[in-house]
Amino acid sequence: MLTLYRRHYPPCRHTSRRFRKCQCPIWVQGTLRGEVIKKSLDLRSWEAASDLVRGWEASGEIGIVKPEIPSVSEAVERFVAYQCSRHLAPETIRKYGLLLEKRLVSWCTKTGRTQLRQLTVDALRQFQQTWEDGALYAIKNLERLCAFFEFCLDAQWIERNPTKALRRPKAKHAPTLPFSQEEMKRILDACDRYPGNQGRLKAFVLVMRHSGLRISDATALSKDRLDGNKLFLYTAKTGTPVYVPLPPTVIQALGKLDTNGSGRFFTTGNAKPVTARSNWSRYLDKLFELAKVENGHSHRFRDTFAVELLLAGVPLETVSILLGHSSIKVTEKHYKPWVKTLQSKLEQEVMRAWA
Known about the structure:
Oligomer: single chain
Radius of gyration: 31 Å
Order of helices and strands: EEEHHHHHHHHEEEHHHHH
Shape: elongated
Largest sheet: 3 strands, antiparallel
Number of strands: 6
């Protein structure tokens, strides 16, 4: 037990330890888990000294004050706010919020686990069993969950990261399937039969096919990203802008579009990015159905862009730069089968030269 008292010095006329209404220094005396202490706290505020000693008693160690541990919902709120302060992509923030705010906090509320200490390995295994995600998305969610608990660990709210004991789902990486030339022809022909804004839809398809943009980036495409026939993709870490030239058919299709004063080709700018992306995904689904293209989705345009470059002899390093991948290993992972096809093509060209 630790006891606080004032040690009176002249000109203070008091001598009793029980007297607290002066400004003499405060000392602490007693034992805590077998450790003996008798020393000055270098404090004169009785309230501050009481808070300090209570912190020692809570941690069970003299000189150590553990931080106040927030609830699960408060910890999630702080984590998401911190990720926002890092200026992460809105889509990344949305996925963190979907997993942690919408799913984890709701599950904790239903099961009565409102404190971080209640989220044990066994509890998180039960939470993991409620996921209905596919294997690849479940792996990503596990990585997001791990990032949250690493944040809590760094803040000293927990003693260890319980997600380290969770097993990753088994997932087979699906091979990249670009659109064939015949499928692309059917898709473009279907644009002329689409019951809607046919010109805008065809321009959207052409931009995705010849730029390699993701659907969220294509949806937000603005006129100021065009420089003649070149489309600005992003600024590399070296500070160098990366452009991709667009065929004349794409430039002509974009030139026919009315941006309605927003400066954007495919959205008014009033809708949220998530809403705009969802709308265009729905338009493309109808288009694929009309073109009778099975397993059609927006990312296959990006795959077609990459694979056609590789088959044309463009180095993998260049394709990786155009796609904006963080590492060439990412590009190789997705397009390794097509790199082998390119190698076979090169070997055939070399052997033809022997003749």
